[in-house]
Specification:
This protein has 503 residues and is an alpha+beta fold. It is built from 17 helices and ten strands. Strand 7 (467-474) and strand 8 form a beta hairpin. Helix 1 (2-20) packs antiparallel against helix 11, helix 9 runs parallel beside helix 11 and helix 12 packs parallel to helix 14 (346-362).
Amino acid sequence: MKTRRKYIAVITAIAMLLALIPSVSFAGETAGDTAVGQTWSHTYKTDGKSFPVADRHDGKNTPKVMQDELEALKQDAINDFTGCYEYYIHPKDQYCNAIWQEIQDLCTSVIDEIDSCKTFADIYTAHDVGCEALLTIGKLTKKRVKTGSAEELASFKTEKINALNNIYKEKSKAEYTPYYNDIIEDQHYIGKVNIKKAATFAEVMMAYTSAYRLISNSPTAKEFAQYVKTAKAECKEEVMKPLVKSDYTKGDWEIITDTFNKQMKVLEKLESVEEIDDLYYELFNIIFEALPVNEKYSSSLASQYYSMLIDALNSYDSADYTDSGYEKLWAVEEAAEEAFDHAMTNYAEKKIVDRAIEDMKKVPTYKEELKALKKKLCKKLDKYVGSKKYVQKKVRPIVKAGKKAIKKCDTIKDANQTFRKYNKKALATVKKFRIKSHAGKGGTITKSKTVKYGSKAVFKIKAKKKYKISELRVDGKKVKIVKKYTFKNVKKNHTIKVKFRKK
């Protein structure tokens, strides 16, 4: 349970961060293609759910739960790379022998590299760089390279060096931090050297792709500053926001907030996206380990509290609730489970479960909902009596009969149908409504009047000499200015007010 609660929170935190990492197409020169490799998802699945993958764990020290996912991700990457090969590589007879052999050697080397990776990031890099190289070399065919001769290889090298020079010149126009400025300079130089040393077309593409990715993915100083700002916001959103201060002792909460604030100051001084990612991935564990109570942390207690939460939900019978009521019970449990996964102490876990159990008790049963509905519907019928709005003589017995019938209903459906029946009768029985009129200085309006249910009422407006109508309001809302306003099909009380001003 301890391993589960520690890593689910880390895994959850990765989702937003992955969205921040600049994406690169599989090959600059293949823009517009839809590669099989491009649809590869950087997630792993467990218990039917997909989660973004955390990273930066050394292969030897990676806990088993993460090591298993590392191996699963390797297989996914290999399968996707193989699918990319099957989708894009033409039949053997469309290639010269030299290029065909290079394609086979490239596939073998990429699969071997993926299989030897010890981190999630290494798997992504090996897969993506391999796909980019495969897509480009797969397009050579006999139309472009007939023999794989030295002259053709030299021409291919020149083409890729020029492409690398172009991206370098383009990136040189922007301002970078010293760290990324060095990366761009180094990769431009290293990429050209490795391309020149390459003995095959595949080696050229691997050297070019690696350098191209590092150069093109380097954020400008402005972009890096925004990355830092966004990362801090995401750290707060994903790590601190799920925690509730009242769930922790005063001392524990001070440790949590102090550790978080210190790590944010560390983050501000980091020089690269990779270092920020490392801190982001490990932030939950850094705070978790800073709490001295974790030395006494008991996984059996965590399991016990979690079982209490599940048992509480299972103790409720769906037959005792409406569909929406039972969904509320589930919503309480799911919210508590999410908070539970973020909790950092047994004390917090217990408070979360206790609060959820109390919230479940507050969800009304079917009988309670029916009782509340009956009360509400009877109150709606009461509006026809005890008020000067209506002539009560004939409507009073209808209201009385309606309330009595509603109270006898055994289902929510029956209660609603009964209310609609008697509400319709009450409306039809009510005879008169009052329409109050008011005119400001400078004119007149027809005096207030009482009208029959469903009838119409006309109010004439007249401005005095040297005055004109400036505003007309019906039931408090402005309406179009007219000299004669008609209320049609009157079924409730109304007000009409007019203002005048000098011309």
